[in-house]
Amino acid sequence: MNKKDVAIVLAGGIGVRMEASRPKQFLDLSEKPIIIHTLERFEKNIQISLVAVVCHMDYVEYLDELVKKNGLKKVYKIIPGGETRQESSFIGIKNCSPGTECVLIHDAVRPFIDDKIIEDTLTAAKETGAAGTVIDTADTIVVTEGHFIKEIPDRKNLKRIQTPQGFCYKTITEAHEWALKKGIKDATDDCGLVLAMGRPVRAVSGSVFNIKITDQADLSLAEKFIAMVQ
Amino acid sequence: MNKKDVAIVLAGGIGVRMEASRPKQFLDLSEKPIIIHTLERFEKNIQISLVAVVCHMDYVEYLDELVKKNGLKKVYKIIPGGETRQESSFIGIKNCSPGTECVLIHDAVRPFIDDKIIEDTLTAAKETGAAGTVIDTADTIVVTEGHFIKEIPDRKNLKRIQTPQGFCYKTITEAHEWALKKGIKDATDDCGLVLAMGRPVRAVSGSVFNIKITDQADLSLAEKFIAMVQ
Lengths: 230, 230
Hints:
2 copies of one chain form a homodimer.
Chain A: E1 4-11, E2 28-29, E3 32-33, H1 34-44, E4 50-55, H2 60-69, E5 75-80, H3 85-94, E6 100-107, H4 115-128, E7 130-136, E8 141-145, E9 148-151, E10 158-168, H5 169-181, H6 190-196, E11 201-205, H7 216-229
Parallel strand pairs in A: 1-4, 1-6, 4-5, 7-11
Antiparallel strand pairs in A: 2-3, 6-10, 7-10, 8-9
Helix pairs in contact in A: 3-5, 5-6
């Protein structure tokens, strides 16, 4: 059996922050749902073999129609999500096809993932077992303790973590099983679980364009990005 | 002599990030230069007695005309800035009038500072000696070491620091003198100098609206904020 690299797209959110009729991943960006832009990036990438989408159960059927309508061939499973992000992520992992070598876990609402990010993350994950994409922080970050500022760490060692995050299939499966044994249930980040387990995680350069669309201002910015490249 | 609270507005930047004919603090926001919006907030606040502006030397005269044209009575000094932010900040501090009790150091390009932020920061500064305004981080922040992610600190203890930052006059003067003795010349943050000297710094709640306008996207967002309240 050939080894495969699988993208797991997390679309479980119901988008409480965006006042709209549909979850934000289904809102239109340049006349096409945001999630379709995201899935098309994986469809066109030569290294990704298959795509599994973890989706809120109320939208599984709707997404299935969108996938068919847009001719996306790599999406082989649309799976109802769990109660938490951690659970949804593990559901995606457990639903990867046999022979999966690496997984790339990605937010549905980051439609500007590109080939370079996908390939750099997979390469680092294969070398180290786990890799997360990071970008510089625009602001100065401080550490607080109660009502006091305790420390201003050197900004050059602080980064904002994005998705995709890439993992050897064995590493991320072990990390999720380990977390459940430890009673950890609300992790918002897969790299965090691998770190907590004591394994190394590589930092890969992400992109300032790989934004997460969580509100109307992000959506306006995303429209500008699309206009820039057209 | 009555004790006074003085605002020091830092407008030293020449705005290399914004492709425009003038430094960003002089660009129009709702038909008025950004810095005039900022100065008006202090003009209207009852706790601030005087405002000192530290400005790039090429723009001192231009700003003086703007201040007169807009009838700003509290701006009593416009001083040419230094080579670094730290130097400009210290120049502002040294140019405060006799009898200054507290200073509020603020970026010229944060025009949405409001009375609550000004007063909360001054109150905390009077109690503790130093105070900085902070807001939550929207992103997950990680600590990197070379090409590896070493730690994902608990997000609830990480904050983004903004301006204003408020200080007892004696505390901030000592911090700057201490820094120069130690050879520290490139501090980008006044609270950081007080912390480095080993003194406590309070964390005061800032506001997500108190944005720093550094590029065209920020300026568009600022226009939206203005439209919201009109």
